[in-house]
Amino acid sequence: MGDIKKVVLAYSGGLDTSVILKWLQETYNCEVVTFTADLGQGEELEPARKKAEMFGVKDIFIEDVREEFVRDFVFPMFRANALYEGVYLLGTSIARPLISKRLIEIARETGADAVAHGATGKGNDQVRFELSCYALNPGIRVIAPWREWDLTSRNRLIEFAEKHQIPIAKDKRGDAPFSVDANLLHTSSEGKEMEDPWVAPGEHVYSRTVSPMDAPDVATEITVEFERGDAIGINGVRMSPADVLTKLNELGGANGIGRLDLVENRFVGMKSRGIYETPGGTILLAAHRAIESITLDRGAMHLKDELMPRYAELIYNGFWFSPEREMLQALIDKSQTHVEGTVRLSLYKGNVIVTGRESPKSLYSLAHVTFEEDSVYDQHDAAGFIKLNALRLKLLSKQR
């Protein structure tokens, strides 16, 4: 352990990572650099600086990465309409490669020879952090205290904090609260009563959305504008990527949109139950699929849908920086060249209802689909089309 001189720690300022900070200093007798990312979690981050200073940390990095997060990670993922196991919008998964990227960059800037994270040995995040770090710097040391120390219970964690005069918030004493992860894309809650998949979550679990039952009785109508597959404006007002998602969160949250109660299959092998809120992402997915419906060729759309589960699984499992994810991204980005236009949506009591879509690059031809008389489609051609497609079925039927 003595060969580690400096460690960059992904630091939230909370109880767990504060204990980790002190434990690293004691166990490895090393200098610790802290990195705290503003991903839009909605928390004041300056207290993290004060806590780090209290531990004698000299290099403290607190950075607003919301624009980079949405522009370079969330939006590329949404171009693929990525859903893990058909429903999960990957809010936690997509934040980890960005945090890892900055950990490695800061390690390079400060001359650190290791990075550390606060993910436990039971979850997916340890995999995501470490695969990303090794992909970006194969020689880096990664320290995962939850897999090394003997602080295996909450009481031991608090005892360590008290011994080293680490401030403990009142809500951290007593029974362990449920765990919450938040960023600009979503919130996720796990643990405590939610560990039983039969027990319905109480309203206290939700922080970003009103209950659909309490949402307004009048629908909210909005438009979302797209260029090359990315949302670039709402209601005719052009916005930055982070501002688009922030506004969609506000609109979705007020209308009870984006709640998900999910039992998922973790990469490490177990099933877990989580409660997710992704109001803006839920609206964005519906809007993106709507604009693709009139701008993407059938073959391109169907190929994307076939590849999407694989793409989503790569992100969920921590392979954002893998060559296969980058290959798929190149294909997906190519498909978005003409995905531009406007989608109109109605938001009502937890529902996102597409009511219109238009695009200067539309492939929708009213002349071909009209029920009225037309001069561009000869219906007699369909007979030969059907006969040729039926040929193999007829031959197979005779064989039987």
UniProtKB/TrEMBL annotation:
Catalytic activity: L-citrulline + L-aspartate + ATP = 2-(N(omega)-L-arginino)succinate + AMP + diphosphate + H(+)
Residues where ATP binds: 10-18, 37, 118
Entries under InterPro entries matching the protein: Arginosuc_syn_C, Arginosuc_syn_N, Arginosuc_synth, Arginosuc_synth_CS, Arginosuc_synth_type_1_subfam, AS_cat/multimer_dom_body, Rossmann-like_a/b/a_fold
Domain Arginosuccinate synthase C-terminal residues, every copy: 178-395
EC number: 6.3.4.5
Pathway(s) of this molecule: Amino-acid biosynthesis; L-arginine biosynthesis; L-arginine from L-ornithine and carbamoyl phosphate: step 2/3
Residues bound to L-aspartate: 120, 124-125
Subcellular location: Cytoplasm
Annotated residues for binding of L-citrulline: 88, 93, 124, 128, 179, 188, 264, 276
Keywords associated with the record: Amino-acid biosynthesis, Arginine biosynthesis, ATP-binding, Cytoplasm, Ligase, Nucleotide-binding
Segments forming domain Arginosuccinate synthase-like N-terminal: 6-167
Presence of keyword DNA-binding: no
Molecular function, one GO term: argininosuccinate synthase activity
Similarity comment: family membership: Belongs to the argininosuccinate synthase family. Type 1 subfamily.
PANTHER family: ARGININOSUCCINATE SYNTHASE
Name listed for the protein in its UniProt record: Argininosuccinate synthase
Organism encoding this protein: Kiloniella laminariae
Lineage: Bacteria, Pseudomonadati, Pseudomonadota, Alphaproteobacteria, Rhodospirillales
